[in-house]
Amino acid sequence: MVQNFHMPPTGFGPGSQPAAEDGVELEYMPLPSGMRTYSPRLPDLGDRTVAAEALALMGRVADAAGRVAEGGASESFDLTALDPANLALIAETLGQGEVSLKIRGKPSVAAQESVFAGVWVLTGMGVNRIEVAPAPALAGTRAFLPDRPAIGVLAGRKPGVVNAPAIFAELIDKSLVFAEGAPPHVVNLTLLPHTEEDLSWLDEALGQGSVTILSRGYGNCRVTATAQAHVWRVQFYNSMDTLILDTFEVTAMPEVALAAPEDLADSARRIREVLEAIR
After folding, report:
1. Angle at which helices 52-69 and 84-94 pack, to 10 degrees?
2. CA distance 67 to 75
3. What is the pLDDT of residues 208-260, one digit of tens each?
4. Do 215 and 223 meet the contact criterion of CB atoms below 8 Å apart?
5. Which of 43, 160, 201, 279 is such that its CA lies 20 to 30 A from the CA of 233?
6. Closest CA relative to residue 198, chosen from 242, 168, 232
7. CB contact set of 141 (below 8 Å; sequence gap of 6+)
């Protein structure tokens, strides 16, 4: 029996796509680039007797990093009593790493990770110290204190708000049953249908907490605490500053902002290497 003849589908096969000579080229989203890597910092020591306090303190910081890496509690070192020469040596040795935090409140505190992961420098009115920890303790205690309060379902329901209330209900449910040490619960907005009005409604409903974190590596990651306990907004940007991943995380502190035990152990070793090289 003769079958009916079917024309081949259009839009496929040779000649269906524009050729390069037509001036149209396939474009890809720019890949991340410019990752920071560790390089030893060997400060100009000058007079060793003048810098004795700084060298001794850095030795204690290295020991603290080793203890914290093994599960010990965070440790803090006050810098307010050091003279300018010792402070300058410490600043030059520590440098600036990938993660910085803005902690609002009284006093407002800026925290900057050094080139040694898990070693933080905290500055503010009456605050000048080094803290050795996965993340500064103050970031955890102040994170969800409202800078702009969460108003929940009282947020204005404007036209265009479609999926935000359902996302909000999920976040509230996970927030209320959150247990310390539980794995993070992630709501991936990038994969969910939503409108700009949804995002505005969620921002108003969840409010804003007191901690903002910027992590730089391949592109940037911006982490913002909401005013709802344990709920964070985590946004990843590529090297062209294009938003490529937008999520909410229900967790104590997003992992992207934390120094891992392996990082702290590595920092302890590297600090000792630097001290050995400049002594």
Report:
1. 40
2. 9
3. 999 999 998 767 999 999 999 999 999 999 988 899 999 999 999 999 999 99
4. yes
5. 160
6. 168
7. none
Range with lowest mean pLDDT among 26-40, 111-125, 178-192: 26-40
**pTM of the complete model:** 0.81
Q: Which domains does the chain have, with CATH numbers?
A: 52-134+260-278 (3.30.1370.140), 143-257 (3.30.1370.140)
